[in-house]
Specification:
The complex is a heterodimer. Chain A is 43% helix and 21% strand. By secondary structure, chain A is of the alpha/beta class. Chain A folds into 2 domains: 205 residues, 3-Layer(aba) Sandwich (Rossmann fold), CATH 3.40.50.2300; 153 residues, Response regulator (Rossmann fold, 3-Layer(aba) Sandwich), CATH 3.40.50.2300. In chain A, strands 6, 7, 8, 9, 10, 11, 12 and 13 form an 8-stranded mixed sheet that branches. Chain A has a 5-stranded parallel sheet with strand order 2-1-3-4-5, sandwiched between helices. The two termini of chain A are 38 Å apart. Chain B has one domain. The radius of gyration of chain B is 20 Å and the shape is globular. Classes of the chains: A alpha/beta, B mainly alpha.
Chain lengths: 381, 305
């Protein structure tokens, strides 16, 4: 009996000691993101959002190593190896593109590192391939497209033309849209990834007799399509996920984007104190409005900081529980992880508006509330 | 159906003419100087950025267009004098390495100056709007203007090469470099002029394309690949080959994207027809290139090797 008490005391002391050690031991985060090339705008926003939260927290125990993946899977893999083996990071984050995520994430989590996604969340990592050390802070890839399908149905559209680039995220996007869309598809087109001229597709849209167009064309592809669509004189309403009409590209599309509906889990006018402060401080720090990618970066850093408050990263089980609790103030308001470590969240419909002479998005309604992704039930961990 | 077909034909023609502006400069430089210039796409980007910046600053697209020509030509002259001049005697691998380095320098330099976010550039009011084609389809006036501008440039280039003293020198330089130098022609200056001309054409293409697409870092590389396909098909060094090759590639690409999924949907279900069709369509121009190379190894109008 006496021995038992002594053991308990010893364990308690040991626990306290590790706890104090834990606070002195810094957490090292490796951020691999796209900072050069055509897709750099997205990575820079995610990085800036992340680093804004880090700066605000002023937590000297957090060290962030940032590297540029140039949007190339092979470079991303090299960087991940370097960060895990020589930098000895505890956590990886930052990848924007799903094909890069698929190249890096499985091997990183197999080496017992945590991975927190600021954007890419391919279906392969949400269903059967889910993992206890993988968390997606942003969404599951299909979410915004599913919401767009739901929105198209709710508007009574019955002949939608759908269009996306011919790569995994593009086919996922169309599949996601169809999952919640109950009308007919009047045309389905897969474009070349990186395509810049959409004259042929616009002619098909015009000839299809569609009553609405759903398009998923992130980055420069969306800019090119939107400008050409406006120039073509076709006036069938467009619906897109937020990626097609995000803050970073609205300025380059110009007034052609006005009035277009898009679905998003974040918007700068979501009414909560954290979001308001985030938009203001981001604008003050970087001189531009934040994008969805910036908001995901900001939330990811705050999630990480909240877990650091509660547990030592070396104690993986405790740290994982702390992450799973998601005990932080999200710019999206409430934030809950589902069973497969992807958020269960509200997805809004936004409309492109002009505030002064700046184009931005405004929430006009709810697309799907408390949305759980389609793969969650397949995940066993 | 007829109007859709007509519209797609025009789209194919327009994308071909656009490609010609890129490919003509590339083939001139390749043919006359024997130089593989991977940085040609960067000059195109310089043109687009110059046009966007000047148009935003002055409010006039036309001033932007002039600026794009001047900026790209100026960049071309600088690059030729500082870098390219040292490469003529080196083999193609050195040229590829050096001009690839130029791509990286131009890209990161542009990012450094203008940031990572795409710039805004729209069509001028004069050319905004659409016209009604026979058959009832609408067609953007700006695309018709691009076709007209491209054909004008093509005519100008043919006159320049065929009828002027400069053209004679260019053709002579292509045929026999040592001899033309021996005849007392300042070959250095000739090369600089040809390079600047090619750069200006790329800049012009960049400004036109920038109004319908996204003005962003890295915009030049996809077009550069197509331009290389064009000059391989047309025959290296031949302006006529570049014109025919561009229009062939433009047609094949546009009509392939339009017709292949349609054709396949008669033999398989709709969703696999669209995905297989679009995958095949994106390969079509390379299949065309392989075919041309098989039948005529030096391209349609290339000099016999």
């Amino acid at each position: 009996m006496k021995g038992n008490k002594a053991t308990v005391a010893a364990v308690a002391i040991a626990a306290l000691m590790t706890a104090t050690v834990a606070q002195a031991e810094p957490v090292k985060v490796g951020m691999i993101t796209t900072l050069s090339g055509g897709g750099a705008g997205l990575g820079i926003d995610a990085r800036d959002g992340f680093m804004l939260a880090v700066k605000q927290a002023g937590n000297s125990d957090l060290e962030v190593v940032i590297e540029d993946d140039q949007q190339k899977p092979d470079i991303a893999v090299q960087l991940a190896d370097k960060m895990i083996q020589s930098e000895k990071v505890d956590i990886l984050t930052g990848i924007i593109w799903s094909n890069l995520a698929m190249a890096v994430v499985p091997s990183a989590i197999a080496q017992d590192k945590f991975y927190l996604s600021v954007n890419a969340a391919p279906s392969q990592l949400a269903g059967k391939g889910c993992n206890k050390n993988y968390f997606s802070v942003s969404y599951q890839n299909d979410n915004l497209h599913e919401a767009a399908g739901g929105y198209a149905s709710s508007q009574g559209y019955s002949k939608t033309f759908v269009m996306a680039p011919n790569y995994p995220a593009g086919t996922d996007s169309i599949a996601g849209f169809k999952r919640f869309y109950y009308g007919d598809i009047s045309g389905e087109v897969y474009t070349k990834l990186g395509q810049t001229d959409y004259a042929a597709e616009i002619a098909q849209i015009r000839a299809s007799g569609a009553d609405s167009v759903f398009f998923f064309l992130p980055g420069g592809m969306g800019i090119a399509f939107m400008k050409q669509y406006a120039q073509s004189g076709v006036d069938i309403p467009l619906i897109g996920p937020a990626f097609s009409l995000d803050q970073g590209i609205l300025g380059a599309i110009g007034d052609a984007a006005l009035g277009i509906k898009n679905t998003s889990n974040w918007s700068k006018d979501i009414d909560n104190a954290t979001n308001k402060a985030f938009v203001e401080t981001f604008q003050a720090e970087y001189g531009r409005l934040p994008s969805i990618y910036a908001s995901y970066g900001f939330d990811t850093a705050n999630l990480l900081l909240s877990a650091m408050e509660k547990a030592d990263v070396k104690d993986q089980d405790a740290f994982r529980e702390a992450l799973r609790a998601a005990d932080f103030n999200s710019v999206r308001g409430k934030f809950i992880f589902g069973a497969n470590h992807h958020p269960i969240q509200d997805i809004y419909v936004r409309e492109v508006v002009k505030e002064g002479d700046v184009l931005t998005n405004k929430i006009v309604g709810m697309a799907i509330a408390d949305h759980v992704d389609a793969y969650a039930s397949e995940c066993t961990m | 159906m007829f109007s859709l077909f007509l519209e797609q034909m025009l789209n194919g023609f327009q994308s071909g003419v656009m490609l010609f502006l890129m490919a003509s400069g590339l083939t001139l430089v390749f043919g006359v100087m024997g130089l593989i210039n991977l940085a040609h796409g960067s000059l195109y980007m310089v043109g687009a950025f110059a046009c966007a910046v000047v148009a935003a600053w002055t409010g006039s697209f036309w001033l932007g267009l002039v600026a794009s020509l001047m900026a790209a030509a100026l960049a071309g002259v600088l690059v030729e004098i500082l870098v390219i001049r040292r490469l003529y005697r080196r083999d193609h691998l050195d040229q590829v390495l050096a001009t690839f380095a130029l791509i990286l320098i131009f890209s990161e330099g542009t990012r450094w100056i203008f940031g990572s976010f795409p710039l805004f550039l729209n069509v001028p009011d004069l050319l905004a709007g659409t016209v009604i084609l026979p058959g009832g389809a609408q067609y953007p006036i700006f695309r018709l203007a691009i076709i007209a501008a491209g054909l004008l440039v093509a005519a100008g280039l043919f006159l320049l090469i065929g009828k002027t003293r400069l053209g004679t020198r260019i053709r002579a330089g292509e045929a026999d470099r040592e001899m033309i130098a021996a005849l007392g022609i300042n070959i250095d200056r000739l090369y600089t002029v040809v390079f600047a001309l090619g750069a200006a054409l790329a800049g012009l293409a960049g400004a036109f394309v920038g109004t319908t697409q996204s003005v962003q870092v890295g915009m030049g590389e996809p077009v550069l690949i197509l331009a290389f396909v064009v000059i391989v098909i047309g025959g290296i060094g031949s302006i006529k080959g570049a014109l025919i090759g561009s229009i062939l590639v433009g047609f094949t690409d546009t009509m392939g994207r339009f017709l292949l999924p349609l054709a396949l949907s008669t033999v398989t279900d709709a969703s696999s027809a669209t995905s297989i069709g679009s995958a095949l369509a994106s390969m079509l121009i390379y299949i065309l290139m392989a075919l041309v190379l098989f039948l005529r190894p030096s391209g349609l109008f290339g000099a016999k090797a």
